[in-house]
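Sequence, structure tokens quoted for completeness.
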Amino acid sequence: MLTIYAPSNKPNSKAWEVFNGVKKAWPDQITVKDNGAEIEPAINSMFWGFVNNNLPLVKKLEERKHQFWFADTPYFGRFDNNNLKHDNHYWRICKNKIHATFLKDCKADRFEKFGMKIKAPTLKGSHILVCPSSTGIHNYLDRPNWINETIDQLKRVTDRPIKLRHKPRGRGTSGPSEATVPLSEDLKDAWACVTSCSISAVEAVCMGVPVFCDRKSFAEPMGNLHLEDIEDPYYAGPEPWLYSLAYQQFTPEEIENGRAVEILIDKGFL
């Protein structure tokens, strides 16, 4: 039995784009509950983002070591409201974590379709770019003051200029409603990118910028975990990691037609 926790009052939401496909192709029997009303999670649950009561429900499942699935924005191929098709955007689906697990030996095919270029690191940048995640993520990490704590810690270990880039939010709830400067511009001449769990880490790594992140971040296999190492950052070839991410995100079409389930089975998740 798979229990989907969904916003019952928003049938046209992004969450339902994932859940409607899951209901058609998932191998388990499915029941749906209102994530705005439930306070006790079932074993083997599925969530989309930290909306309504999802955050405390996910944390309870983690504490109890019970199985759950978490869907949210992808690592590549985000939706574009001006060009929205069933096969041109993706959603990540992760097991027992809110972000992807590092899988070895994934093929390059799913990543290569995005045409992203990977630059070698120069380690000659000047400023440090701080990219906070959402308020929900920081609460999930039990670090609601992550921004101030991180900047204070950086100031104790480096004299480099620090540039803060808040996460753009569609409704401006915990950051600007939209980015005024492309992330790629802020990453130019960056010595390092510091984040908790932001997907900005993908673009940073592809631009050859070392990443510092939380140990619960999907970037942990590529990232540095200790800010005291900011002047001596680690950077490794990212290709296997990028290929792995691409195998844990799927188009609505793939979720609906069973291709996502096939991949999850092949990778040992189902």
